[in-house]
Design brief:
The complex is a heterodimer of chains A (375) and B (603). Chain A is 40% helix and 23% strand. Chain A is built from 16 helices and 17 strands. In chain A, helix 6 runs parallel beside helix 8. The chains are: A alpha/beta (375), B alpha+beta (603). At the A-B interface, helix 8, helix 9, strand 12, helix 11 and helix 14 of A face helix 13 of B.
Chain lengths: 375, 603
């Protein structure tokens, strides 16, 4: 399984709760050409498995690319590496940045899965989150996406928003389900340090729900009868059967992926694995790619113990969990043998079903606490 | 010739409170006399251990020979004997002082005299040393040399009017100090031809040469190749080298009466060459040993357990290595239900305990959980057995105890006037018995109390410091054992008694201690995915309870391709910060929880 991640580190403007690296403004016209050069280098190196089974345009705001730019990059990737039949090709888009026309264009360019950064269908919350779209625009965008031919639509939902209670969340959830998305990503709002949001939070302009409320809302999402048709397949992700995001599953299964674009991460599985990162400064990226230098550097490489820990760290985020047999085959040791204290520490929040270890939903709520035992 | 040589020797030590600048002054003396070249200069040459430098205290004694051409045209040998500077090591100090004829009393011209200094000054005066004051840090704007001189005269009763005013940091007054040493400190006495009597004032183990003893020759002469006898241990060895530190080791042909230096004699263990022992010739023995030898006994005990139980052997090896150089601490294997295999260790005092723990962690890389310090209780059982109880877990069942005794100490506390009230109520709270309140000057007071040592080893010192904003200083000496009504206080974590948390406390205090202790532990125990119940119990009776609420939410919600490394490293870093945790049952307890009793503030 090999994936391709294409990073578009540009946003029209930064969201006040976001601590990710991105450049405000438009995408430089040269950028898609750089992505193509980068792909050519990666193909020439022979380090990456062909064909790609998944492609993901992420950001930033990838929908700042025009359909023809997307097509250009996808064609280049397909020519150089090939695409598996039925490859999942996703694009993240913000409701405020797409039109009926551009959506049709993306679909024609080959995008077959759209992930929309809706965040909320409550205008008051959207304004507080500093999003550039309204709930109405979000609904309209969904509608247009369907019309453009997208039959795999994912929506982002933020919960634990300032002042939100069970009723508020249920209302928001119902509005989401009315749009019948194939996929839902539900993120609890976390106030990341050094964001404008954090400053406003400190200045007591608003308060976010406490831990107990957060837990209630998380469990509410998990148990809501309306979401019964969706499986909670990762801490923050829900999907109708068969619509789990394969590109992301590959991350959690510790599969290979090539990252292109300034600031993109990649993972090579040789040995016990190696994580790489591309220079995130646009000028450096441009210079390296134009000169034919490898634009990415090694971020870290793994020995057996580290690889095993990371396999568990990633695998236990998912409902499918980690296979005991796979651990034994790959790392010569099962979970209990390698981490007796960490397993004991998890108590009944870690279970083994049919040879696979996974956290209970209560365990997911304290994932950071539990997983640190394995690191 | 002996006399001529002796007349040109001065043996002296420096007495100073922590931070009053002893080490800096010593460095200046070494530099000024050319003993230390620029190339060799590292700050605080005498404090060799990393730990000594960091804490600004001296743990081991040292002796350095300085050659000083005095203003009178003669060249003098000045032996600077550096002494440990803490009450835990007062026996070592007394032996070091015995090797000297004089002492410089270094007083910070901005601070004045402190109790710890006083204890050492009195010890020096008792041993008939010529004590003369030096005011340090006179360059600071807040220096009050005149007032401090008066204070020295009033409190200590030695003349201070012509005390040298110096600044070790700025190199002021160093020449004057050297001249004062030559003029004021008497030359050593002793007969170089008499039977050998050499006082050991420090000894340590060197893996190449065996034990190196630092000695002051009181009588006689010692040479390489001679057979010597250690009068306490009774063992006989052949001298392989005699020498001096200048400051690097320098072999000499002989050391004779009045001189200070080292003797190496293929002695295998420090245990055989204890501080205070007398070295004599095997074939021409001195009629009796020098007085004052004591076997120092540990006063404070605590359990040391490796956090990772696989490091048990490593810990034992490390303890054995440390013991090679320190006969005053003891250890024996101990088994705790909660903490597994570890050691019960005995120390001279709290500072000694902290030093050993820190060295184990730093120099030997063992991560430790340390249990709260305790003293040795004497228990008489109904069957008439006498037990020395070093740990709450060794205490027999209540109905089997006939009588219990606890050690008392005599504490001398020095404070400015305005803190007297606070100190008195602290001492009363700590079950103290007042002996004396003495006004040393118009605003400096010495308060003397008899106190149970078990109250001291808990939080007395910290309380004292915070109550007086650091202005109190404190010194103590052991008294006898006294009968006392003591009980065992147990701590239960999620319903299970954790043996390593049990304490022996006075019955009158058991209830409030238990209450305060679980409240304090609650602050230290991080939340876990379930609620943690904490209870304090005397026998089967629960006297206090608290709970650490369950962790409800601790989750990274996004972890995609670009987040994997960063978020994992963040978790690893957080975990690193929580390294000193021990899993007891299914609860993780941090080191602080085991020491929580030290942080309890009584009302």
């Amino acid at each position: 399984m090999s994936g391709l991640y294409i990073h578009i580190p540009f946003c029209r403007r930064k969201c006040p709760y976001c601590d990710f690296f991105s450049v405000s403004g438009t995408v430089p016209t040269e950028y898609p050409n750089l992505l193509c050069r980068h792909l050519e280098q990666a193909a020439a190196s022979g380090r990456w498995k062909k064909p790609f089974k998944t492609v993901f345009f992420g950001g930033g705001t990838p929908s700042l690319l025009t359909p023809s730019q997307v097509a250009q990059v996808l064609e280049k990737a397909a020519t150089l590496f090939g695409m598996s039949p039925g490859a999942e090709i996703s694009l993240e888009a913000n409701p405020g940045t797409v039109t009926e026309q551009s959506l049709r264009g993306y679909r024609l360019a080959g995008i077959n899965r759209l992930s929309l950064g809706v965040q909320s269908l409550n205008d008051e919350q959207l304004a507080r989150l500093g999003r550039i779209h309204s709930a109405g625009e979000a609904r309209q965008t969904c509608d247009r996406a369907r019309k453009a031919g997208f039959d795999n639509l994912g929506l982002d939902l933020m919960f634990a928003l300032p002042g939100q209670n069970r009723t508020g969340l249920l209302k928001d959830l119902k509005a989401y389900l009315d749009l019948a998305p194939e996929h839902l990503s539900c993120y609890g709002l976390t106030v990341e340090e050094e964001t404008p949001f954090a400053h406003r939070h400190r200045a007591a302009e608003f308060s976010v729900p406490d831990e107990q409320v957060f837990a209630d809302l998380f469990l509410l999402l998990h148990r809501a009868p309306e979401t019964a048709g969706y499986s909670h397949y990762e801490i923050s992700n829900y999907a109708r059967p068969g619509f789990e995001c394969r590109h992301n599953l590959n991350y959690w299964r510790r599969g290979e992926y090539l990252g292109v674009g300034a600031g993109a991460h990649g993972f090579q599985a040789h040995g016990y694995g190696e994580r790489r990162v591309v220079a995130n400064e646009l000028e450096t990226y441009e210079r390296r790619v134009t000169r034919g230098e490898r634009p990415d550097v090694r971020l870290e490489s793994f020995d057996r113990r580290q690889a095993m820990a990371e396999t568990i760290y990633l695998g236990l985020r998912t409902a499918e969990g980690v296979s005991e047999r796979l651990l034994c085959e790959r790392f010569d040791s099962g979970l209990v043998k390698a981490y007796p204290a960490a397993v004991r520490r998890c108590g009944d929040m870690l279970v083994c079903d049919a040879g696979r270890w996974h956290f209970t939903v209560e365990g997911w709520l304290v994932y950071d606490h539990l997983i640190s035992g394995f690191l | 010739m002996g006399n001529m040589k002796q007349n040109r020797i001065r043996n002296f030590s420096i007495i100073a409170h922590i931070d009053h600048g002893k080490s800096t002054l010593a460095d200046r003396l070494l530099e000024t006399t050319g003993t230390l070249t620029d190339r060799e200069k590292t700050d605080q040459f005498l404090d060799k251990m990393e730990l000594e430098r960091e804490r600004g205290i001296t743990i081991k004694a040292q002796a350095v020979r300085l050659i000083y051409p005095a203003d009178d045209g003669n060249e003098y040998i000045l032996n600077l004997i550096d002494t440990p500077g803490h009450v835990d090591f007062s026996y070592e100090v007394s032996r070091s002082l015995k090797a000297c004829e004089g002492a410089l009393l270094v007083v910070d011209a901005t601070q004045g005299v402190e109790a710890q200094t006083l204890a050492n000054v009195y010890m020096a005066i008792e041993q008939n040393l010529e004590v003369f004051p030096v005011l340090n840090k006179v360059d600071l704007p807040s220096a009050e040399p005149l007032r401090i001189k008066e204070e020295i005269e009033e409190i200590i009763g030695i003349e201070a009017i012509d005390a040298v005013e110096a600044s070790a940091k700025e190199g002021i007054g160093i020449h004057e100090i050297l001249e004062a040493i030559v003029k004021k400190v008497p030359p050593p006495e002793g007969d170089p031809d008499a039977p050998l009597k050499a006082l050991i004032f420090d000894s340590w183990y060197d893996s190449y040469q065996g034990v190196i003893t630092l000695v002051r020759i009181m009588d006689g002469t010692v040479r390489k190749g001679e057979r010597i006898k250690l009068m306490q241990s009774g063992k006989i060895h052949e001298v392989t080298q005699v020498g001096v530190f200048a400051p690097n080791p320098l072999a000499v042909e002989s050391l004779s009466a009045g001189e200070v230096g080292f003797i190496i004699a293929s002695i295998k263990a420090v245990h055989d060459a204890k501080v205070g022992d007398t070295i004599t010739h095997a074939d021409r023995q001195a009629d009796k040993a020098l007085g004052g030898f004591q076997v120092v006994k540990p006063l404070v005990f605590s359990g040391l357990y490796p956090i990772d139980s696989s490091e048990y052997d490593m810990l034992r090896d490390a303890l054995e290595k440390l013991r090679l150089n320190d006969t005053s601490f003891s250890f024996e294997p101990e088994n705790s239900m909660a903490l597994g295999f570890g050691f019960r260790c005995g120390f001279l005092g709290l500072l000694h305990m902290e030093i050993i723990q820190e060295r184990l962690e730093r120099e030997f890389g063992v991560d430790l959980i340390t249990t709260a310090p305790t003293v040795v209780y004497h228990v008489t059982t109904v069957k008439g057995e006498n037990l020395a109880v070093e740990s709450a877990n060794m205490l027999p069942e209540l109905q089997l105890i006939e009588k219990m005794e606890e050690p008392f100490i005599l504490a001398s506390i020095h404070v400015p006037n305005e803190y007297v009230g606070a100190i008195l109520s602290l001492c009363e709270e700590k079950r103290g018995i007042q002996r004396e309140i003495k006004y040393l000057t118009a605003n400096r007071v010495m308060i003397v109390y008899e106190l149970p040592l078990n109250e001291i080893v808990l939080d007395f010192y910290d309380r004292l410091k915070s109550l007086t904003r650091g202005y109190a200083s404190f010194d103590y000496e052991p008294l006898e054992y006294r009968e006392s009504d003591l009980v065992r206080l147990n701590i239960l974590v999620n319903g299970e008694t954790v043996d390593a948390l049990s304490l022996i406390v006075h019955r009158d205090k058991a209830y409030s201690r238990g209450k305060d202790l679980v409240a304090k532990m609650k602050e230290f125990i991080p939340r876990q995915q379930f609620e943690v119940a904490l209870q304090a119990a005397i026998g089967n009776k629960v006297v206090a309870r608290e709970s650490v609420k369950a962790l409800r939410k601790d989750v990274t919600s996004k972890c995609y391709g670009g987040d994997i490394t960063r978020k994992r490293k963040l978790l690893e870093k957080q975990k690193e910060g929580k390294k000193r945790m021990k899993q007891v049952g299914n609860v993780e307890l941090p080191q602080e929880a085991f020491m929580a009793i030290l942080k309890v503030k009584e009302k």
